[in-house]
Structures are given as structure tokens and as C-alpha cells.
Amino acid sequence: MNYVDGFLLPLPKENLDVYLEMSRKAGEVWKEYGAIDYVECVADDVPDGEVTSFPMSVKLEPGEVVVFSWITYASREERDRINEQVMKDPRIAGMDPATMPFDGKRMMWGGFRPVLSL
Q1: Distances from the Cα of 103 to the Cαs of 17, 31, 89, 108, 111, in angstroms?
Q2: Cα(78)–Cα(83) distance, integer angstroms
Q3: Per residue in 5-50, pLDDT tens?
Q4: Calpha distance 57→60 (Å, rounded)
Q5: 10 exposure class (CB count in 10 Å sphere: 0-12, 13-18, 19+)
Q6: Cα separation values, 117 from 72, 79, 103, Å
């Protein structure tokens, strides 16, 4: 089965176009090095929760929207190889975290091993 890196972050709605342009460029780099898919999704139906929810998980503030993203790889080994190359690529390495269109301190990410695919 494939391997997936998942991401969850808060994005100021006014920065959506800038974020999508940045993501488009980043996605091209990941795919160039072998990623299978690079997907960005903007929250459309994510209710606030009382105990937990997508908005609560990123400490969503007024004027922001939740972004849920993932990158798919052939395997964990391929993911590790691709990410090592991507992080050295000047198109990614040159990105300044201080100028990102979202608050990276409230971003979550991790690698996931699929256990079921229908």
C-alpha cells in the first residue's frame, strides 16, 4: 500500500490565492521527485465541536478557514527519499517560514501508513 503525509492548518481566507499559488509550486516539486498525489482541500462542511473538531484542532480564528492536505507516495521509503530531495531543492529550501501565508505554529502534519483501501 502507499504512504501518506497529512497536513492540517489554519489559513486566513484573504490569503487563499497566495496559498494556492505557493502550493501549486510546491506540489510540482514533490511530484517531480516522485510523489503520486499532492492534494489541497479547503474546509466546506466542518462544524465546530464541543470536545474536538477540525476548527478546534488548529485553534481557528475569525477570518480563517481550515486546510486539509495530503501527499501520497509509493511507500514510506519513497516518502523519505523524496522528502530529503525536496527539502534540498532551492525552490523549497528558499521559502522563508516568516513569509508563509498561514500560521505554521498551528499546523499539524504526520506520516500515515494506510491499513485499508477499498
Answers
A1: 16, 25, 23, 11, 20
A2: 8
A3: 999 999 999 999 999 999 999 999 999 999 999 999 999 999 999 9
A4: 8
A5: buried
A6: 13, 19, 32
